[in-house]
Amino acid sequence: LGAPPDEPSWGGMLTSAAEHLERAPWIALFPGAALSLSAFGLNLLGDAVRDLLDPRLRGTGAG
């Protein structure tokens, strides 16, 4: 399950950076930030779609 080992992925980048964190902690910064921002953005998108499509929330003033 997941990406093949020869394909780059953010999780693979974080795993390979783990062995170098003592010398260069910034190596994990960019893949970790990209992963966090993507998860946060998708969460916001999901909330917006739910607010638009959930009939129970219409007319309640929520949001």
TrEMBL record:
Coiled coil: none annotated. This is ABC transporter permease. It is found in: Cell membrane. It comes from the Bacteria. InterPro entries: BP-dependent_transpt_permease. The chain crosses the membrane at residues 26-46. It is a multi-pass membrane protein. It comes from Tectimicrobiota bacterium. Its main location: membrane. One of its GO terms (cellular component) is plasma membrane. Keywords: Membrane, Transmembrane, Transmembrane helix, Transport.
